[in-house]
Design goal:
The complex is a heterodimer of chains A (244) and B (326). By secondary structure, chain A is mainly beta. Chain A contains three helices and 15 strands. In chain A, the strands form two sheets. In chain A, strands 3, 4, 5, 6, 7, 9, 10, 11, 12 and 13 form a ten-stranded antiparallel sheet that branches. Classes of the chains: A mainly beta (244), B mainly alpha (326).
Chain lengths: 244, 326
């Protein structure tokens, strides 16, 4: 009887000591988005860039989604985040996001995310408010949302005009891009500030040198173009840790 | 005897008190019918819709007493038969509860209350004494807002409540989406043109509201009117105007901010072949260098046919939105 009571008390003490443990997830995760061309900060509305195919271009619009963000652990596991980030280079408040979950201090292996909306999140009418709702991708082309709208001017050999480098899921084929930066370890102490950098020039090369004349001004209904955007986009991102 | 006097005096006091008490009005919540394919409407917590508030807003909407000279009402320029537009280049007052930019040049931004404030204070320059001395309004304001003292605030709130009921979402397009109707072959071709980059209307005339509520230079002129530039002073905004909703577009001629086009056929022809270069043309006008999207005659007719499927006859005949003063 006494033994049973002792075990009961011990269990209670153990449980209560567990519930008093402080939450180890104390580190806020901030994501700061930077946009580069030729490794320099993007200058909007300036006809000063030349792509790998030798065509001049400017950038007037850049809006996109990032989803399925993960911080990878050294042991091979990862911490998933539910946040869907909308970024518009003309809206400064959209360039800094504090994620909805904290993590524990320690050493981490890297990050990964989806450029665009992960397949299970790309659902028509999931966004009812602008600006996200204005990224809608017509139902007759498969529905969901634009993953990215990159727009500007181009000057090529035989023509010049606007380009609308719009990507999304076309007719059931998902062209979102899984970005894997999970083998770039870093230490986390009080706060995790990640600078996520998009090199815009890389959309237009590796493995395919983008030709504005060949692909045309609008590419939403062009599966070859969407596939090329997806392939070129794999090395568009890099990141660094901003030290406090 | 003393007791009798006490009873009589008490009775007089009670009856006098009773005569002086004002009746207490509790406005009844208004049930807003939002079309099934529309998102929820954000309604400010300090201006919930009530039966009395909406009805008062409706009466004010149609009353020329709102104008300082007593010769204009909201309904003078925003006529129900024109989808609350008119035969001038007036933006239609439809589905404004989901809008956050108002007027062609976007000079008013915020809520419906903000645009109502602009109209009451700047356009109508309402003389509130006229409403205060009206035989009906003080009682109606009392019922809606609990005060007989009529100020700009209550007028704005009442009008905003009525505007939030002016919602159109039962066009043929909506019925097709709901599986209750079918497009003709011609309308379907127009639907395809609209929602693909062939016609490329959907980027600016976006969502179920057929507007992105943003400002664009749509290549109307080589020397455009200033538009949004007058609001921001930013040269990049020169020539930009608000994308109008295309809901009920067949009822709202003439078209563009200056009313230059009398018919939908003229509008479609403009986007097909009539674009003009200027410094701030939106890159979404991706066929600018070719003068437009270069539609065939069949495609142009189809696009017009599709645009007419955005007409909501129930809306322009809705008795709840009609003039209550007649």
């Amino acid at each position: 009887m006494n033994m049973r009571f002792f075990l009961f008390a011990l269990t209670l003490a153990y449980l209560s000591s567990c519930s008093d443990d402080p939450d180890p997830n104390t580190v806020v995760v901030n994501l700061q988005l930077s946009h580069l061309v030729d490794n320099e900060a993007l200058q909007l509305d300036q006809m000063i860039y030349t792509n790998a195919a030798g065509q001049e271009f400017s950038v007037k619009t850049l809006k996109y989604f990032i989803s399925d963000f993960k911080v990878h652990k050294i042991d091979g596991g990862f911490i998933p985040f539910d946040d869907i980030l909308y970024i518009d280079v003309r809206e400064p408040e959209s360039l800094l996001h504090t994620l909805s979950k904290k993590i524990a201090p320690g050493e981490y292996a890297g990050i990964s995310f989806v450029h665009g909306l992960a397949r299970d999140q790309n659902i028509t009418n999931r966004f009812t408010e602008p600006p996200e709702s204005l990224m809608e991708w017509p139902v007759m082309m498969g529905g969901g949302y634009h993953y990215m709208k990159l727009e500007g001017d181009y000057i090529a050999r035989a023509s010049s005009g606007f380009f609308n480098f719009h990507s999304g899921s076309l007719d059931g084929t998902d062209y979102a891009i899984s970005v894997d930066l999970a083998d770039l370890p870093f230490d986390v102490n009080n706060e995790l500030n990640i600078e996520l950098k998009m090199e815009i020039q890389n959309w237009f090369t590796n493995p395919v040198d983008w030709d504005f004349e060949y692909f045309g001004s609008g590419i939403m209904g062009n599966s070859e173009a969407q596939r090329t955007v997806q392939r070129n986009g794999r090395d568009v991102y890099s990141f660094s840790i901003i030290e406090n | 005897m003393r007791l009798l006097l006490v009873i009589i005096i008490s009775g007089l006091i009670i009856s006098c008190k009773g005569n002086n008490e004002q009746p207490v009005y509790t406005p009844k919540p208004y049930t807003l019918n939002i079309p099934a394919n529309f998102p929820p409407m954000n309604i400010p917590a300090d201006n919930p819709l009530t039966v009395e508030g909406v009805e008062l807003g409706r009466k004010l909407y149609y009353d020329k007493k709102l104008h300082v000279n007593g010769d204009k009402a909201c309904a003078s320029c925003h006529v129900q038969a024109y989808s609350f537009s008119s035969d001038a280049a007036v933006l239609p007052a439809v589905n404004l509860g989901w809008s956050n930019k108002f007027l062609w040049n976007g000079s008013v931004q915020g809520t419906v209350e903000d645009i109502m404030h602009h109209e009451v204070a700047n356009f109508f320059q309402t003389d509130f004494d006229v409403l205060q001395n009206d035989p009906e309004y003080p009682e109606l304001f009392k019922k809606a807002f609990g005060t007989e003292a009529i100020t700009e605030e209550e007028v704005v709130l009442a009008l905003a409540q009525f505007f939030r009921t002016m919602n159109s979402g039962n066009a043929k397009f909506d019925r097709v989406l709901r599986g209750e109707d079918e497009f003709t072959n011609q309308e379907y071709l127009g639907y395809e043109l609209f929602f693909t980059e062939r016609g490329d209307c959907f980027h600016c005339h976006a969502t179920v509201f057929f507007t992105d509520n943003l400002m664009h230079n749509n290549a109307l002129d080589t020397e455009p009117d200033p538009g949004y530039f007058t609001v921001t002073g930013d040269s990049l905004d020169f020539g930009k105007f608000k994308s109008p909703t295309l809901r009920n577009i067949a009822y709202t001629a003439p078209y563009m901010h200056d009313g230059r086009y009398a018919s939908l056929e003229e509008v479609v022809e403009f986007y097909s072949t009539g674009l003009n270069k200027s410094a701030t043309v939106d890159p979404l006008m991706k066929n600018l260098s070719k003068g437009g999207v270069q539609l065939s005659a069949e495609e142009k007719s189809a696009l017009v046919a599709f645009l007419k499927t955005l007409s909501d006859e129930d809306f322009i005949r809705n008795p709840d939105l009609a003039n209550p003063n007649q």
